[in-house]
Amino acid sequence: MASQHLAASGVHPEVYVFGRNEIPSGRQDHMLVGGMVRLFHGHPLLRTLLPSAGSVSFGWIQLRMGETLEVRAEQRSVLLVGCDGAAQLSPIDRAIGRDDLVALPAGQLCRISGVGPDGFHALAIVLGEAQGVLASPPASDQLTLDGLLAHNLRRLEQVAQGRFFTMLRDGTLDSRDKRRAYLDGVQVFSDMFQTMIFSRQASCRDDLYAPVFLQHLRAELGHNELLAQRSDKQVSKDAVLAATASWFAYQMHVLDNVEKAAVIHLVLETSGQHFHALARDRFADESNRAYYEVHADNDDEHAKMGIRLLDGHHPSVYRRLHQIVDEAWDMFEAMVNRIVDSVVRA
């Protein structure tokens, strides 16, 4: 639901209504496995209405059945307010759910697991600068290329534990129908990736970036056709999947060159390297196995060619790239989770 505002008869100029899914998500290393935390301070308008994140931070926790969340209250106390669903809290071994309040003093650790079929939703309140559940902006010593690469790797590790990559390992795709739905979903993004690299090349007039972008385009040209070599291929009619995939193509029209390089070479090529390495073995007997082989062999080099463009920038650029990378990982997760949903329905 899009944000809405209503006139308030002169008492207050505007009243705002936010959909939960409009609030950006964020994670930190070892803090979250499989679930999601939506950060109130990450929303540009909410941020103007709330106290400074240095005094209090808010987040919306969303866990699905089977997911686990570790909450570390390192230097600040954390309050969790149960809103819906049910789960198990350790180390005190207690069931928690709607209307329960969990108080976690500074220096303590708790684990939420055993999530029921309806999931578990809670409001997280960090009393002080967010250092556990809620992600904070990158510190000044992280505003370097090494800091950006480390952050990108953490996001990859978190996504690699999610539903999409799990399906490559847990036997779900042994079903012919589910495997077809999986590949049809991947085809949507593979086709869109071709649009992305053409759009990026067409809009680039910078002599530093254009040769690298062109080298990458030539290396990727027509790879979607390798995946399409399936006798059981069906054209996906999933509008949500198409929209999330199209987000990446749209970025090639609105971002600057260094941001485009970060989205494609850090997020998409890094995730692609991990995906294709797993999928090459999983689909070794498929007619389109060449698609996985060529990407598993080349995606690492494709990632590195873009990383060279990200070196030597001002800290303010790296601050912006941290945000862009997070947005791209969030959209990537939304896209691949939609593919998983289609597999479940198959």
Short description:
The chain is an alpha+beta fold and 346 residues long.
List keywords for this structure.
346 residues, alpha+beta, Jelly Rolls, Heme Oxygenase, Chain A, 2 domains, nine-stranded antiparallel sheet, two-stranded antiparallel ribbon, 10 helices, globular, disordered N terminus
Can you tell me about this structure?
The protein is of the alpha+beta class and 346 residues long. It folds into two domains: 4-127, Jelly Rolls (Sandwich); 140-345, Heme Oxygenase, Chain A. Helices cover 47% and strands 19% of the residues. It is built from ten helices and eleven strands. The chain has helices at 44-49, 145-160, 163-166, 176-202, 210-220, 223-227, 239-254, 257-282, 289-307, 315-345; strands at residues 4-8, 12-17, 32-33, 36-39, 57-63, 68-73, 77-90, 94-97, 101-104, 108-113, 120-127. The strands form two sheets. Strands 3, 4, 5, 6, 7, 8, 9, 10 and 11 form a nine-stranded antiparallel sheet that branches. A two-stranded antiparallel ribbon has the order 1-2. A hairpin with a 3-residue loop joins strand 7 and strand 8 (94-97). The two termini are 27 Å apart. 34% of the residues are buried. Mean pLDDT is 78; it is low at 1-13, 27-34 and 129-136.
